[in-house]
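Standup notes, protein team

Yesterday: finished cleaning the Pseudogemmobacter faecipullorum set.
Today: Sarcosine oxidase subunit beta structure.
Blockers: none.

Input for Sarcosine oxidase subunit beta:
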Amino acid sequence: MRRYSVFAIAREALRFHSGWEKAWKSPEPKKNYDVIVIGAGGHGLATAYYLGKNFGITNVAVIEKGWLGGGNTGRNTTIIRSNYLQNSSSAIFEKARSLYETMSQDLNYNVMFSPRGLLMLAQTHHEVRGYKRTVHANQLQGVATQWLSPEQVKELVPIINLHGPRYPILGAHYQARGGTARHDAVAWGYARACSDMGMDIIQNCEVTAVHQAHGQVTGVSTTKGEISCKKLAVVVAGHSGVVAGMAGFRLPVESIALQAMVSEPIKPCLDVVIMANTVHGYISQSDKGELVIGGGTDGFNNYTQRGSFHHVEETLRALVTTFPLISRLKLLRQWGGIVDMTGDRSPIISKTPLGNCFINCGWGTGGFKAIPGSGWAMAELVAKGEPGVLASEFDMWRFKEGRFIDESVAAGVAH
Ligand SMILES: Cc1cc2nc3c(=O)[nH]c(=O)nc-3n(C[C@H](O)[C@H](O)[C@H](O)COP(=O)(O)OP(=O)(O)OC[C@H]3O[C@@H](n4cnc5c(N)ncnc54)[C@H](O)[C@@H]3O)c2cc1C
């Protein structure tokens, strides 16, 4: 595969861009693979990438029922942070955040990582206590975060109204190297690198059954035929329960639609990412000028991958006192994705009752930021059959044994 570079752009400009190769191949599936990864979202593609890069395993197929990145990976609001409370969470999210720092160079693909700074607003005294506690925990974990006064918040965010009558700004939990990246580019960059290593990315191919014998997976049925494998990695986010059902086990995961929206593009007015967890809304400005606004989950479990009117009203009502300019904006688009929620709001990277089948799910409303760290940890689990340090506490049996990794104080919501 030809490297992308300034010279490649110049060369192609001279020949009217006629020489670009396809970024990844679209082969028909082979009869068997060493590893099948179900799901070409960021987590599935990153798992495949690190299987190749860290363990030299390249006889891999990534099987996707739609188009790659078309699930939550291409639908999220792209917030990246690692300011979590629990040690196991901050370790995997900080690993991911640090991999984002060099991802464009590693993948030779511009993922537009923008560590513009992230604020989690404290708008109740409960949040002040919770976030200060998390700042202290982050210091012990080696994650650089700090507590900001309301005046420091105003300096960073001139458009903010500090003095809302019901929820004034009492301070903020700030991570200077938090930010955003371009979500599609993350999926596309991993896909290109996987394809370059000889892996097969098979789109428009749904897994419809998982076959097993003697407690081991032997292969899968797909809409493009039967494929056998030595190991199976299930990385399907909101459809984890469905695929686990095919494999004959249950997961402590619920599937719920989470919604977001963007405004019309406006002049630059916000150069940090802001989360307001008490009123529940979060906001950043895209490079195109749109305000990217995230809301909450639907109030009931569902597989409905779209937005709904009442969420627009609820989310904007929540944010408008703090950001009065929102009241004058037109909305451009609204959408939803199906997120996979666990009881403690922490993910699952785990062995399963089937010996050679592994599952990665439960990233819920906050897994975009985790993609590289999750792929790194999942690849280790699949390659070695045992979790490494990063994944060691995220097994699915913690729900049976009461070993919860409770992140409620750190995030309120977990974007
Ligand atoms: C509106 C919204 C906002 C969000 N905001 C943020 C945020 O700001 N920051 C953040 O960190 N996270 C955020 N998230 C969460 C984040 O998007 C997800 O946690 C993350 O993208 C999950 O990635 P994934 O690869 O596990 O899943 P996905 O990208 O959903 O990929 C799973 C893939 O599996 C495929 N699949 C399912 N079943 C099958 C089958 N039977 N056969 C083959 N393929 C199958 C699906 O088609 C899908 O492409 C948000 C999510 C949403 C919906």
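Follow-up from PR in the comments: The domain at 24-78+183-253+344-411 is CATH 3.50.50.60 (FAD/NAD(P)-binding domain).
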